[in-house]
Automatic annotation (TrEMBL), chain A:
The modification O-(phosphoribosyl dephospho-coenzyme A)serine is found at residue 25. It is found in: Cytoplasm. The keyword Cytoplasm applies. Its main location: cytoplasm. One of its GO terms (cellular component) is cytoplasm. This is Malonate decarboxylase acyl carrier protein. The keyword Disulfide bond does not apply. Keywords: Cytoplasm, Phosphoprotein. It holds the Pfam family ACP. The gene is mdcC.
From TrEMBL, chain B:
Signal peptide: none annotated. Pfam families: Carboxyl_trans, MdcE. GO terms for molecular function: acetyl-CoA carboxylase activity; carboxy-lyase activity; transferase activity. Residues 1-248 form the CoA carboxyltransferase N-terminal domain. This is Biotin-independent malonate decarboxylase subunit beta. It comes from Companilactobacillus nuruki. Keywords: Transferase. One of its GO terms (biological process) is fatty acid biosynthetic process. SUPFAM superfamilies: ClpP/crotonase (SSF52096). It comes from the Bacteria.
Amino acid sequence: MEKLHFNFDTKDAISKPVHVGVVASGDLEVILRPTDKQTEVNIITGSDGFKEVWENVLKRFFDRYPIQANIEINDFGSTPGVVNLRLTQALEELEDEK
Amino acid sequence: MKNSFVELHARERALSLLDADSARELVGPLDNMISPHLEPQNIVPESDDGIVLMKGTISQKNVLVVSIEGKFQGGGIGEVSGAKVVAALEKALADNQNGKTIYPIIILDTGGVRLQEANYGLLSISEIQNVVIALKKYVPVIGLIPGRVGSFGGMSITASILSYLITTNKARIGLNGPEVIEQEAGVREFDSSDKNLIWNTLGTKQRAKTGIVDEVVDDTVDEIKAAVIKEIETKKDAHRTENADFYLSLLDKLDLSKKLDISSYDKLYGTVETTKHEITEAVSGSKEGTKSRGRLWFEKLTGIEKATSSVPTVLHAQKNGKEYIAIVPDADNAYPRVRNGEVGLQEGFAVASIVNKIVAEDKDKTNKRPIILVVDVPSQAYGYQEELIGIHVALGSSAAAYAKARQAGHPVIAFIPGDAVSGGFLAHGLQSNRLIALDDTSITIQAMSKASAARITQRTIAELEEATKHVPAMAYDIDNYEKLGALYKLVKGIGSWEATSENVEKINNIIDEAIQSTVDQPANLHFRYETPIAKTSGRKATLQVRQLVDEQW
């Protein structure tokens, strides 16, 4: 298990907290919470040694969707593709109810 | 296209059952109520700790859906997840008691106790069983076992107590998983790589034939929802844990000289005639019984030397108005898997029969006789025929009997001079109002042997031992167990084997104090949350969960 922490300077406010996913094998859960502070991502992952990969996946995501949020991720060995999918799914949940 | 229910995650399963827009989740992922015990063991937690609680309606009837996430840590029950279930069911009980009908539905997808929080798992599961028994006086408690993990371990004991079990053909139900039986009893007892044997034995097709589950429906959301609605409306109750006489009659007819196979069991199940079984009180025999701490203390507390009984592993006697019950080893027992004192089929059903009789006799009395359990159980029995017949029903029968006795007003006191492990402890010990233990390093309290726990949690024994140092709930010794706050008393200065007359008198006094302490107190298991140790550390997360559920109910 490894804990990772990232910050991003993104400014698009989100309207409400959302939760998607399950901490199942090869999967993860993502929680987005609105914040007025700097965007923060706290990750607990079962697969050690992938800090750089996480950084790349998150950077690409925030480049495309610069949301300002406090993000919590509990990951049980998901691939970068699944991570991106869940993050996008969380955004969809935000859109749905607007 | 048909929508599979099994393929859904726990939250989606709960939502799919509830009327559109009626669902409201309690203590959900955003409440930050995660297990404090996983991260210290380097295990990734989940924000809902694998339990989804949802209130809502199903065809306009108020329901509480408890849905276990089988994909997270195998649906194992730990402190937070267990407390969520107990707290919500207790709120449902209170509503029903106040005339507000709400139907609980439990979706089981679970391996039982979460081994990384083993002792919390055992405590929680016994607390779930207690509230289920209480709820059944008001409403049916429907269980759904859709499948993938299925239902195993202590939660299968719970399943046996539920009113009615709906399943699909994708589920398996048993007490000990095949891998654990193989680990404990050898590959010849149960070959865990033989998938056909596993499905034929534990699959719902077989289980429905022999009274372990009540209904097998197709795996579609619509079929499952329809079955749930039907069972709520007809208020079905299988009374699964009230068949001790039937099972004891069945066991009388069992040919123990050869390995039981499925077709012979089916035949036996269909033809057995139920006769009344009365387990007579233990008397002095001519031969010393197999030595154990449990037997030693039972004999000293009751004054019966060389105690012997019609079920050699179950000793029961009355002394000074108190009913003593012990499960003991028997080196020559006809059932090889209970020779070391494990709780097996006969033990569960015999204890249930004894306890139910006591409760029936005292039904109209104001003063109910105290029941004292002498606990020295190294585990439940690990065996193939045990699983085929349904050992979890045997253990459920005794657990249910003890819970009913307590709820009827009998003080139920467990005295622990020996081991208190796993399903054995759930069946014989954990339904007590008060737990008294000797402070002796030889005592093991846990959910699984180290070898099996290491295999199932995919760690080495060294890694497991390292974890036990930091997490009291993982430990195997009584001093760490005390840190959970569940004990009424940890008795210092008396060793497990030191049953001198002076020590016996001391224990008798402590038992009497414990009985006194139950007078005019609620007959539930809340004592465990209210000790100073529980409040300050042992059950802190439990108490937090209870408060949150209360606020959000």
